[in-house]
Design goal:
Elements: E1 26-34, E2 44-53, E3 61-64, E4 67-70, H1 72-77, E5 79-87, E6 93-100, E7 106-109, H2 110-113, E8 116-118, E9 123-130, E10 139-147, E11 157-163
Parallel strand pairs: 4-11
Antiparallel strand pairs: 1-2, 3-5, 5-9, 6-7, 6-8, 6-10, 10-11
């Protein structure tokens, strides 16, 4: 909309158009269309902006497996589990903690041991010991990976641990 709602005959106004690309990587196409309230006048396309927004440099985490299912004796006794953590981004991934979401189990603490850095396109394997549970119904827990990855968000990146019912 113009800086004002109406123009007098012969009056001019300068328009400024911008497109905020923050958080919108990929192809885009935006059109600037001029419309009036003059009856019978059709909207006029003034111009089109097309382009590609490059993704901002960032670390991206991927973990395997994303779901761990414990059945039988593993459900009761626990299990050693290897976690492969890969950096799919283009700057170093810094892992500062791996713990249960409730904080009861700490598998890695970067504050005491020093953070772990994973370079772009590299993978590191962590071995953790999952505790067992004597459960009569299925139960789910989460492992939280704290890191600087853009796709982890403020609360971290999560792996599901499923304790199946006997």
């Amino acid at each position: 909309m113009l800086g004002k709602h109406s123009l007098k005959p012969g009056e001019q106004v300068e328009l400024s158009v911008s497109y905020d690309t923050a958080g919108r990587p990929g192809l885009f196409e935006k059109k600037v269309i001029f419309t009036t309230n003059i009856s019978g006048e059709e909207p006029i396309e003034i111009f089109t902006i097309k382009g590609v927004v490059n993704e901002a440099p960032s670390a991206k985490i991927a973990a395997s497996p994303r779901r761990i299912t414990l059945t039988g004796n593993e459900r009761r006794d626990g299990k050693k589990q290897a976690l492969e953590i890969k950096n799919e981004g283009n700057i170093p991934l810094v892992v500062t903690g791996i713990r249960s979401r409730d904080g009861r189990s700490v598998y890695f603490d970067g504050t005491g041991q020093g953070a772990i850095t994973i370079e772009p396109d590299q993978t590191k394997t962590f071995e953790i010991q999952l505790g067992g549970k004597d459960v009569s119904a299925s139960e789910r827990e989460y492992i939280q990976i704290e890191c600087n990855a853009r796709n982890a968000g403020d609360s971290g990146y999560f792996i599901i641990v499923q304790y199946d019912a006997p």
